Design the sequence.
């Protein structure tokens, strides 16, 4: 039988996960709305992608391991790199059907937004990895000394 303390902690974690999921959904809906509200010629075209990526942050914070942050960061950095790379490849290298998709990607998705989010997530993940590893080693050392 579980203790009251464990039961309360489990309920709090469940509530935190629900709040994070709802908050992420609201942020993603805002990003979707911004994608239709901001024209591709605007200097703020990076905002829909930034808000979309920010929608993942509440979900990443509810888990204590650092690896989701690292994976999120690496994948976003790679996506940003490919977005940037695609803008330098000449159109004659693509089939005609793909040129429309390439133009949409170049007009609506700012590569550096993805890369900035990726690098920040990687740095935060590394800090979190260092913190978690240190806490684990301290706890293990205390248990070994008993």
Sequence:
């Amino acid at each position: 039988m579980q203790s009251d303390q464990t039961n309360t902690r489990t309920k709090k974690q469940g509530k935190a996960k629900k709040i994070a999921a709802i908050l992420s959904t609201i942020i993603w809906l805002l990003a979707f709305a911004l994608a239709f509200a901001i024209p591709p010629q605007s200097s703020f075209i990076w905002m829909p992608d930034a808000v979309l990526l920010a929608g993942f942050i509440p979900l990443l914070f509810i888990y204590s391991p650092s690896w989701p942050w690292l994976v999120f960061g690496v994948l976003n950095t790679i996506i940003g790199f490919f977005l940037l790379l695609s803008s330098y490849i000449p159109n004659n290298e693509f089939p005609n059907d793909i040129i429309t998709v390439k133009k949409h990607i170049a007009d609506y998705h700012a590569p550096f937004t993805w890369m900035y989010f990726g690098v920040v997530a990687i740095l935060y993940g590394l800090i979190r990895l260092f913190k978690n590893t240190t806490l684990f080693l301290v706890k293990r050392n205390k248990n070994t000394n008993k």
Notes: The chain has six helices and no strands. Residues 111-145 form the longest helix (35 residues). Helices lie at 4-37, 47-54, 57-61, 67-88, 96-108, 111-145. Residues 60 and 68 are 7 Å apart (CA to CA).
